[in-house]
Specification:
- The protein has 10 helices and 7 strands.
- By secondary structure, the chain is of the alpha+beta class.
- The protein has 2 domains: about 150 residues, dinb family like domain (Four Helix Bundle (Hemerythrin (Met), subunit A)); about 130 residues, Nonspecific Lipid-transfer Protein, Chain A.
- The strands form 2 sheets. The chain has a 4-stranded mixed beta sheet.
- The termini are far apart.
- The C terminus is likely disordered.
């Protein structure tokens, strides 16, 4: 298999694994559990899964019928708030088992469509068109960070996996976007990123001789760039003014500027957590 096809297949496999981990969290929930509020107020756990299911369907449309998706964008631009509301209402009309079945079927269909694409294809989306590999990386980031909202709502501390590297890479790649989406000038100068992955490896981006750097745990970095934690509630070290400014506004996801989490609302790990029996989940008392 050519290297680019193998890389795309590996990405699709990682996204399927991310789906499966979140699926394992929500499957045992009672009907009332699906209505648990999440930190992304006023969304419930049901809304988080409905959001993922809806946009997995939109991703499938973009991959299989790019012209139809592009034509569809005009309606989205005309009424973005209404569009987002409709995406949630679709999930709210379903029972939890129906929504779970729809999400499962939709994500499998989406992955099959992307696995069949030429890696050089440009797939339309709500921002600039992306390669299939970039698109799947973005879907993995979305699944991981909305899964974090679900985990926070339930008091679950998820064990990090090597899939975080995809999220961290996207976080680094979107540094300039974090400024431009807020109408800010992009500062000159590099910020070196040095992260400790879940294993013994180190993940690094940028010039190690740069005067500004972000150092620390990869999970902390991913939580900050997806705006699931404020940098002050993590162990990240932002060395230099450029690094600190970036960590204050970092945004790895598309769309308008996010508000992020206020400092002090969440800490990265739960105190006194206990094993659940699954190797990748820890549930707090």
């Amino acid at each position: 298999m050519p290297a680019d096809l193998a890389a795309l297949a590996a990405l699709c496999s990682d996204l399927a694994a991310e789906h499966a981990d979140l699926d394992a969290i929500v499957t045992p929930l009672s009907a009332d559990g699906w209505e648990t509020p999440t930190p992304s107020e006023p969304w419930t756990i049901r809304d988080q899964i409905a959001h993922l299911a809806f946009f997995d369907g939109e991703a499938h449309l973009a991959a299989t019928s790019p012209q139809a998706f592009t034509e569809h964008l005009a309606a989205v631009v005309a009424d973005p708030d209404g569009y987002m509301t409709r995406s949630l209402e679709q999930g709210r009309r379903l029972t939890p088992p129906q929504l779970l079945a729809e999400w499962r079927a939709g994500r499998e269909t989406m992955l099959a469509a992307f696995a069949a694409l030429d890696p050089a294809t440009r797939v339309p989306w709500y921002g600039p068109p992306m390669s299939p590999a970039s698109f799947i990386t973005a879907r993995l980031m979305e699944t991981w960070c909305h899964g974090q909202d679900v985990a926070d709502a339930l008091g679950i501390d998820r064990r990090p996996t090597d899939r975080l590297r995809h999220v961290a890479h996207l976080g680094v790649r979107t540094r300039h976007f974090s400024y431009s989406v807020r109408g800010l000038d992009i500062p000159a100068g590099d910020v070196f990123v040095d992260l400790a992955g879940p294993g013994a490896e180190s993940w690094r981006w940028g010039d190690p001789d740069a005067p500004d750097a972000v150092r620390g745990d990869a999970l902390d970095f991913c939580l900050v760039v997806t705006q699931r934690r404020h940098v002050d509630d993590t162990g990240l070290r932002a060395e230099g003014s450029l690094a600190r400014q970036w960590m204050e506004i970092a945004q790895a996801f598309a769309g308008p500027p996010g508000e992020g989490r206020p400092p002090g609302r969440f800490h990265r790990r739960l105190d006194g957590a206990a094993e659940t029996g699954r190797g990748d989940l820890v549930r707090g008392a």
